[in-house]
């Protein structure tokens, strides 16, 4: 009997580990669906390039979505937006791409003369814009005021941030509230951003512990302020920035009126308008995955293959866009883990009908 119990425990343990494997695997249901147009290269180095993006003519939606892959100078090859020097680190079909952008720096010697001044700017293609929620305008320094200037539709927008401190001890790790670090939201729908840095006293009052200003519009999660940021940012050249893209300028309703230009090509796709208020994008319908911008790009998800995607107690049957739970012969019920499950015996209906 002891052995019996032991075996049971072992089996239970095995089941638990199998379940765990399933759970951790199922995080990426991303099967091998096609992401680029037929005969188009779907990656550059480590970065995958899904349509509407593409590396050559006929492979992208329009010029804005051209990705240039530099494989002569970089190993692994490095993708850039169009013919710009903006490197792409990832592209998502949810409407974002992540790029690297240089940070602005303004440094002084002890006597207050400027020794370094870098104020880079970035301009993204038309139809693209700097994501206003994932990115923040962040400024670091103890004698610093800065502007982030951008434009949209031929109008300029500017926002400012002031960061001061008198003593290194005043800096609080993780706190970006104006003492050594200042942060601001940026305006929606900006196509370009430039950060300019200024100083009140050329760092002469704080030169014992600080001699540089830094500024950037970057993915908020990529930077956490700490006292050591004052010196560490010296060695940082670039930080990630999240860019939004859209495939059309109008609303979904307007886009659907012209089937030849409508970008949601897959039969199982649907159109939506992003939060940033510009244009439209496509996604696969519930129960489908893949690339909604390609003909037949959305493929049925087999929920039965992934334990975490179905709620079936015993047997699962895949259907287009969904799944069914079934009970084995001799059982009845809805077959669901969170429902009635499968109960041994015939259903009540069957019992009652014959009388
Ligand atoms: C892809 O390339 C192959 C061989 O080069 C060609 O036969 C085929 O027609 C091409 N398909 C498309 C969709 O261009
Ligand atoms: C590219 O991907 C491979 C495997 O995923 C990884 O080992 C390598 O470090 C990556 N290279 C870069 C530059 O990210
Ligand atoms: C690759 O990058 C190098 C250095 O930035 C540049 O000189 C070269 O022209 C690029 N090649 C291509 C094909 O873009
Ligand atoms: C990004 O591109 C620049 C050239 O514009 C290059 O110097 C740099 O190494 C690239 N950075 C990464 C992380 O690939
Ligand atoms: C700025 O300060 C750092 C250390 O605080 C020092 O190493 C560096 O030489 C200083 N730079 C200038 C230009 O004074
Ligand atoms: C300030 O310091 C720099 C080097 O740190 C030196 O080259 C410059 O001549 C100095 N300027 C003045 C006005 O003292
Ligand atoms: C501060 O630096 C700027 C150059 O960045 C210079 O024009 C100005 O004269 C400096 N001011 C002082 C008080 O040193
Ligand atoms: C916006 O700012 C840029 C650079 O400062 C300037 O060249 C441009 O004329 C400005 N545009 C408008 C419409 O004010
Ligand atoms: C590409 O398409 C987007 C979305 O319709 C549009 O905003 C952008 O202006 C287009 N780019 C070019 C170069 O035509
Ligand atoms: C529909 O879109 C096509 C391709 O973009 C364009 O040539 C055509 O003029 C559009 N038709 C209408 C009615 O807007």
From TrEMBL:
Keywords, comma-separated and alphabetical: Disulfide bond, EGF-like domain, Repeat, Signal
Q: Where is the EGF-like domain?
A: 300-334
Predominant location = membrane
Task: Tell me the InterPro entries matching this sequence.
Answer: EGF, EGF-like_Ca-bd_dom, EGF-type_Asp/Asn_hydroxyl_site, EGF_Ca-bd_CS, NOTCH1_EGF-like, WAK_GUB
**SUPFAM superfamilies xref list:** EGF/Laminin
Gene Ontology MF annotations: calcium ion binding; polysaccharide binding
Subcellular location(s) per record: Membrane
Q: Which CDD domains match?
A: EGF_CA (cd00054)
Q: Pfam families this protein is in?
A: EGF_CA, GUB_WAK_bind
Keyword Signal applies:
yes
Q: Name one GO cellular component term.
A: membrane
Q: This protein is called what?
A: EGF-like domain-containing protein
Species of origin reads: Fraxinus pennsylvanica
């Amino acid at each position: 009997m002891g052995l019996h119990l032991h075996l049971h425990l072992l089996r239970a343990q095995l089941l638990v580990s199998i379940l765990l494997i399933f759970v951790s695997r199922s995080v990426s249901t991303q099967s091998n669906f096609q992401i680029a147009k037929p005969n188009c290269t779907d990656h550059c180095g480590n970065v995958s390039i899904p349509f509407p993006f593409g590396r050559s003519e006929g492979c992208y939606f329009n010029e804005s979505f051209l990705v240039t892959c530099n494989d002569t100078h970089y190993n692994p090859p490095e993708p850039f937006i169009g013919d710009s020097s903006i490197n792409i680190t990832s592209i998502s079909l949810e409407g974002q791409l992540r790029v690297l952008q240089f940070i602005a720096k303004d440094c002084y010697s002890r006597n207050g003369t400027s020794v370094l001044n870098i104020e880079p700017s970035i301009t993204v293609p038309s139809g693209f814009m700097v994501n206003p929620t994932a990115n923040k305008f962040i400024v670091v320094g103890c004698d610093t005021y800065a502007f982030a200037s951008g434009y949209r539709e031929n109008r300029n927008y500017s926002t400012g941030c002031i960061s001061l401190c008198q003593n290194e001890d005043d800096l609080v790790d993780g706190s970006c509230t104006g003492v050594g670090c200042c942060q601001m939201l940026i305006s929606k729908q900006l196509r370009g951003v430039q950060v300019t840095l200024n100083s009140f006293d050329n760092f002469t009052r704080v030169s014992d512990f600080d001699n540089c200003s830094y500024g950037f519009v970057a993915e908020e999660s990529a930077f956490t302020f700490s006292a050591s940021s004052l010196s560490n940012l010296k060695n940082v050249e670039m930080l990630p920035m999240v860019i939004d893209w859209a495939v059309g300028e109008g609303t979904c309703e307007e886009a659907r009126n012209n089937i030849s230009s409508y970008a949601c090509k897959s039969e199982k796709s649907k159109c939506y308008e992003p939060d940033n208020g510009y244009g439209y994008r496509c996604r696969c319908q519930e129960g489908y995955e893949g690339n909604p911008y390609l003909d037949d790009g959305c493929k049925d998800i087999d929920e039965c293959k992934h334990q975490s995607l179905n709620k079936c107690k015993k047997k699962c049957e895949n259907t287009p866009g969904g799944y069914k739970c079934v009970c084995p012969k001799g059982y009845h019920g809805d077959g669901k883990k969170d429902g009635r499950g499968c109960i041994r015996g015939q259903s009540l209906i069957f019992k009652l009908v014959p009388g």
